[in-house]
Model the fold of this input.
Amino acid sequence: MPSAVKFQEVHDYLKTICPDLHITQGEYDEETRYPETKTLTIGQFKLGVCHGHQVIPWGDLDSLAMLQRQLDVDILVTGHTHQFTAYKHEAGVVINPGSATGAYSSVTCDVNPSFVLMDIDATRVVVYVYELVDGEVKVDKIDFKKTTAMTAH
Done:
């Protein structure tokens, strides 16, 4: 039962930051009320959210692109590898925010704590990446614009 209490504390805290919180089922989550995947629309973008343990091989670009096509989304937000990645692939964008705590990953032993903030405005998405590298916080900005191919959903 302590993990359920801990989950509720984290959930409640995150709701204070973002009242419109979207959660999907993680690999070891005991809480089963959340879906494996979720889609939502923000502005003109359709987003898909998935923990990523379901994508085999983990973090594989082609497998993630297949999930993106199955969900019919412009932007796929996924994780599981604990490593930040963001890239355009085929007609969409795939974002893995990494691990905010820098938790151990079975995929690699080189994990830097990271998280991502996204600003979506009409046909533009700006991804702000915060990553702790050698004791310093590095901030990068990645800009994606919606293309005609992305609007074909």
Remarks:
- Strands lie at 37-42, 45-50, 75-77, 84-89, 92-97, 114-121, 124-133, 136-145.
- The first helix runs from residue 2 to 17.
- The radius of gyration is 16 Å.
